[in-house]
Each structure stands twice: as structure tokens, then as C-alpha cells.
Specification:
This protein has about 280 residues and is mostly helical. Helix content is about 65%, strand content about 0%. The relative contact order is 0.04.
Length: about 280
């Protein structure tokens, strides 16, 4: 009945149509998931446990749809199959870690655990225990042999110019003596060797002798220059010392004059004051 307001009564109101239950298009049944794992696992093993390409995922989707895709909403694409496998792998990793941490006390009740463990369990890196930390100790160095003090090398004394000249000149003299010995040995040989070799040795000996003479002159000149420099240095030091002593003596003389003048002025004032008191 109407109540006068134009609104139908609840008894005469038409019933609302029932809405269908919302259902996710990507929900997977257990059977469809088993079929997916088998189809993906066969191709995964054929590729030597490598990654599947787009054509392989399409084959997996076709295998799933052939058994469970009778309805349009239940059909799966290659992308949906790949996403479902990725989700299963993540779930397997969690279950694998939980079982491993229990040291065999727990077993997984997940229905897909056994099959996934057979497929990808060997590729999962085992959880390695943390290695013990050892404190590094410095390596032991081998002992250094130390000889007695009597045989230890001493620092060589500085070589003076005179010693350097003697050593160099002795080297040149030894070379000249060696050339002379070679010349004597050559002269003792058979005359079949000819005079050319002896002449060459003579020229070499003369060249070495000339070199020795030149070297001796150079060293003598260096010695003379060093002596002249030393004499000049000593002369300069002596002149400087004389000037210093002269300046010191002049200063002392001036100080004595000043003291004498002060004493003279003091004595003069005292004698005049005593003379006045006597008068």
C-alpha cells in the first residue's frame, strides 16, 4: 500500500538482483599450479637450467590452457605464467630457509615444495656458516746475521786530493807497464807475425804514456790551485784575527782613558774641597 507519499511499501518493492562474487583473474588453483610447474620444469631442464625465452613461456601458457583454460577467464598468458613462477620461487626460498634453519626438525607442508626443490634446489646457494675470525699475527722475520765487530765493514775515510792523484797515476802506470809486457811478448814471437802488430802496440803505449802525462799535469794544476786557495784562506783568517785584536785593544785603551779621566776629575774636586776647609 501507498502511505500517501508515493513511496512503495516494502512488501511491494521489487527484489534487488544478486551481484556475482568478485574473483581475481590471476588466481591459480592448485591443479593449474602443478601443471604450470611441470610445463615450466620440462623446458627449464631442456635449457640446462637456463632462463626461458618468450616463445618458451608461450608454450608453457599453451600447456596450462589446454588443461585448465576451458573458460575465457581461466586462460593464462605467457606473462601471467612467468609472474606465477617468480612468485613460487620467492615462496620456495622462504620455505627452504625455514627448513634449513630448523636443522631437520621441521618439514615443509607446502604442496609445491618437493617439486621445486628437485628443480631449483641444487641452484640455491647453501647458507654457509660465518667463518671464525682469526687475529692476524705479523710474520716472523728471519734473523739477520750479525758478524763480530772486528770483521764489520767500516765507513771508508774520505779520500784526499793527494791520494786520488796517487791512485789514478798508479792506474795509468800499471796500464803502461801492461802494454810494455805485451810489447815484449809480441817481440818474442816468431818474425812471421810481421812488424805491423808491434808498431800498433808501440803507438798504443805511446798514447797511454801521453795520456798519463796530461793527466799528471792536470792533477798538478788542481793541486796547485787547492794550495793557493788554502793559503789565501789562511791569510784572510789571519788578517781578520789581527783586525779583531786591534779593535779589541783600541776599545780597551779608550776604556782606560775614560776611567783615568774620571779618576782625575774626582781627585781634583776632593783636593780643592780639602784646601778650602783648611783655610
Amino acid at each position: 500500500m501507498n502511505d500517501g507519499t508515493g513511496t512503495p511499501s516494502p512488501a511491494t518493492a521489487p527484489p534487488r538482483p544478486l551481484q556475482p562474487l568478485a574473483c581475481r583473474e590471476d588466481c591459480w588453483t592448485e591443479d593449474a599450479t602443478h601443471t604450470l610447474i611441470e610445463a615450466w620444469g620440462d623446458r627449464y631442464l631442456e635449457l640446462n637450467r637456463g632462463n626461458l625465452r618468450q616463445k618458451h613461456w608461450q608454450e608453457v601458457a599453451d600447456a596450462v590452457n589446454a588443461l585448465h583454460g576451458h573458460l575465457k577467464k581461466a586462460r593464462r598468458t605467457d606473462v601471467q605464467c612467468k609472474n606465477r613462477i617468480d612468485t613460487l620461487k620467492k615462496k620456495y626460498k622462504i620455505e627452504k630457509s625455514r627448513v634449513s634453519d630448523s636443522n631437520g626438525a621441521l618439514t615443509s607442508q607446502w604442496p609445491f615444495y618437493e617439486r621445486l626443490d628437485a628443480l631449483i634446489g641444487s641452484n640455491m646457494p647453501a647458507k654457509k656458516p660465518s667463518p671464525p675470525v682469526y687475529r692476524k699475527t705479523p710474520p716472523m722475520l728471519p734473523p739477520v746475521p750479525v758478524g763480530p765487530r772486528s770483521v764489520m765493514h767500516k765507513r771508508p775515510a774520505p779520500v784526499t786530493a793527494d791520494e786520488s792523484f796517487r791512485r789514478n797515476f798508479s792506474v795509468v802506470a800499471a796500464a803502461a807497464a801492461a802494454v810494455e809486457e805485451v810489447e815484449e811478448a809480441e817481440s818474442a814471437r816468431s818474425e812471421s807475425d810481421g812488424d805491423g802488430g808491434r808498431e800498433g802496440v808501440k803507438e798504443l803505449a805511446q798514447a797511454i804514456v801521453r795520456f798519463g802525462e796530461i793527466y799528471e799535469k792536470v792533477e798538478e794544476s788542481k793541486q796547485k790551485q787547492m794550495i793557493d786557495l788554502e793559503v789565501k784562506r789562511m791569510q784572510f783568517a789571519r788578517d781578520l784575527e789581527i783586525q779583531r785584536m786591534k779593535l779589541f785593544m783600541d776599545t780597551q785603551v779608550q776604556l782606560e782613558k775614560i776611567k783615568h779621566a774620571k779618576r782625575s776629575s774626582g781627585n781634583g774636586k776632593g783636593s780643592s774641597l780639602g784646601h778650602q776647609m783648611y783655610q
